[in-house]
Amino acid sequence: MRTDLFLPPQPAPSYVPAPFEGLVLRPERVERIGDHRWSVWVGADQLVDREWEGGRRGFLADSEANAELTELLWQRHWDFGVVGSLVLGAAEIRVLRTGGRGAGTVQVEAPEVLDGVQRLGVLRCAVEDGFPRDCLERALVRVELVTGPAVGIVRGELDAEDRRRNPATAQDELIRDPNLLRVMRQFRADGVRFAVRRGEVREPYDAEGDGRCVTVEEATSALACLAPGARLEVAHAAADAAGRERLWADRGGEAYRVVFNDGTQALGVLRAVEIARRVRGVVARMGRGKRYGHAHLWRDVPQLAVWAVGRQLPLVDLHKEARGPGAVDWDALVQERLEGLTVGVAEGLRTAYAAIRPTGESGRRLRHETVRGLAFWEELLDAYGSYGDAAALDSL
User: For the chain, how long is the longest CA-to-CA vector?
Assistant: First the structure.
């Protein structure tokens, strides 16, 4: 008798794929971006449970960049992958579609890191510190996959990218200061261009003609001396490019807020720049060709002259419109009185310099190091203060 007639029906045999030992990704989205290149978006949880090979550097756990990236992951994990990407090379890449542009499986055979060791290290350390797995799943990261001949090309271009990168500076962030944006709009309405960003064409400043251009460098140097509440150490710092960069880097700091704040107006910036340029022009003429005594002071530290002249001016009204009785007539002050005031102040500074350093300094390098130091400025102004105001007023 046939007993197989009473056996339960057996399911039809199904295909079981061979186990895959490489990296298996379940991306949210898959795009082919070129020959041998794919772009996939995956949750960060899919990138943490393996030992990675490749990369020029190991994980730099103590770097400032990684500390900031770690803070971003913990505070706003949903923004962790908004910029940047991982780049993985592979012996082979197989994309198994299950429909549409998104869902599917990507098999990466023999993966190696071409770029992204630091980001992967941040993820690994966060998991070790107890970062929630569900948050990792929601932290989408863009992964670029390359294979075949593209691996060598991409690796070479990544190595070269560090040399090509233009690092950001503090000046690059100034365009996001609402006070500077407001001043730029005011200048634009008056037909004056306020050049804030690096790389902009810097036209000559013409105090009398049209098409004028004021740069943020000269505005910063001038306001550091002439803005209401300006301090000597800020004026000293703003005298050179390195000092201005440090000032701009701390946009929330007190020194920066003295220079650019809610009360800063284009009119006041233009006045400060015009005054500073005229003072510099006067002391440059006074020091021209004079190789004796202490006249080199005028050539070496014109910023100090701007500061000292500023102490004789009604700076509290710098950003105010000249209207009504008692208002400062800035045009008359600049055109009729500023040169005489500058000559008096500059002579007073030179006389004070000769009094505290009667033999002068020998050697150009030492001379520059001495007179350009903040300590010397303070010493000189203390000596100048005992008679400098009277000397300046006598010149008017």
Answer: 135
CA distances from 170 to 197, 228, 247, 318 (A): 10, 24, 9, 26
Q: Which residues fall within 8 angstroms of residue 352, CB to CB, at 6 or more apart?
A: 380, 383, 384, 388
pLDDT, tens digit (0-9, with 9 covering 90-100), for 116-134:
999 999 999 999 999 999 9
The predicted-structure confidence for 211-256, as pLDDT tens digits, reads as follows 478 999 999 999 999 999 999 999 999 999 999 999 999 999 999 9
Which three-class secondary structure state does DSSP give residue 96?
strand
- Residue closest to 270 by CA, chosen among 307, 232, 227, 233: 227
pTM of this prediction exceeds 0.70: yes
| 3-state secondary structure at position 14 | coil
The DSSP secondary-structure symbol of 87 reads E
Closest CA to 200 of 228, 237, 172: 172
DSSP per position, 143-173 = EEEEETTHHHHHHHHHHHHHHH-----HHHH
First to last CA, the chain: 133
Sorted by where each begins, the domain ranges of the chain are 22-168, 178-320+333-357+366-389
Q: 66 and 122 in contact (C-beta within 8 Å)?
A: yes
- CA-CA distance, 16 to 351, in Å (whole number)? 96
How far apart, in whole angstroms, are the C-alpha atoms of residue 342 and residue 172?
34
